[in-house]
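User: Show me a protein chain along with its predicted structure.
Assistant: Here is one chain, sequence first, then structure tokens.
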Amino acid sequence: MAIEIRVPSVGESVTEALLAQWLKRDGDLVRKDEVLLVLETDKVTLEVTAQATGRLSIRVAQGLTVKIGQVVGMLEEVEGQAAGRVEAPRAAAPPADAESVAAKKAEPAAEEALPAKLSAAASPSAAVPGDLPPSVRRLVAERGIDVREIPGTGPGGRVTKGDVLLYLESRSAPAAAPAPDTAAVCPPCSAPLTEEKTRKPMSPIRRRIAERLLQARQTTAMLTTFNDIDMGAVLDLRRRYKEAFEKKHGVSLGLMSFFVKASVEALKAVPEINAYIDGGDIVYPHYYHIGVAVGAERGLVVPVIRHADRLSFAEIEQAVRGFVERIRENRLTLAELEGGTFTITNGGVFGSLLSTPILNTPQSGILGMHRIDKRPVVVDDQIVIRPMMYVALSYDHRIVDGREAVTFLRHIKECIENPERILMEI
């Protein structure tokens, strides 16, 4: 029985996808639940698995755009014991053609003829004809010359002693200096350099990212404000409780949980940054869905931690780790990317010192984290070295004023520099 392989629905707003890659070849035998192909939409990348064990027939090649519900392949179902003995087909060795066989047979003959030719060239006497004058024969024998290389000027084209002497002079004369190689000195002067280009179509995810970033620039009055944070207290807390935290909760204690908790407290203090503009209204959500930007191989995705205000540090870290694993395995669902009210992005993992993050519309705020550097700062009128991080808040100035933005960052700074203000569950 043949089973249709269709493009699955991934959300009401998604009508098409890119068939990014077939992981199996046409005619392959595949097991049930094996991954057959990878689809890319403008929001998520997902894998399509086999519904049964069978032989694959590909109907749509990879790299093409397909509609939701479209048939891209067929699976001829395999029943009985064959289902348990499916093996990946082995590539057959290409048959040897007649020319290659003949060439291999001719190789020994060529190898045998080669020593004979070399031995003849190595023996000057074999190259000396018997009709040469004695003086010429003696001269070419002493000098080891092959007479056949000397053009004769004597009667009947015979080689004379003068011809041999002239040949010796020409062979010992210094070679004329070669003309300057203009191509080597100045390649562009004689032949232009080849400038290669590669043109690749944008993936749906990359197109969507470009559209959203451009939309944020064109439809919002975006502004960025900065502050710096002393990370010493958080780093010390992690160092003291990291092992106990991981032993109890099965996940490492990272920085993101601190910033998610601090952001929730700051959003409660400044609700405008958790709000968004809808037409002529300002909508204030009474929940805190925090998006966490993750750089994936195919593009940036922002999965959402829902009701972050109700989660413990361990639950936040488990949620982040789960997102990273599902992104790596292409198992992230569309529902996990929707509904965020505020976003955090961490450029510090790539070594960024400072940046101005772009809003994730329709949200009104995004917090940018950066790398931690040891810098000299003044503490109690003393210059000391402290682990410092720059943070940036980009916000929509139509709804958030500068005073509110600065207040928000000050709350973040206070919560991170005094983490005892946030409830820590270990």
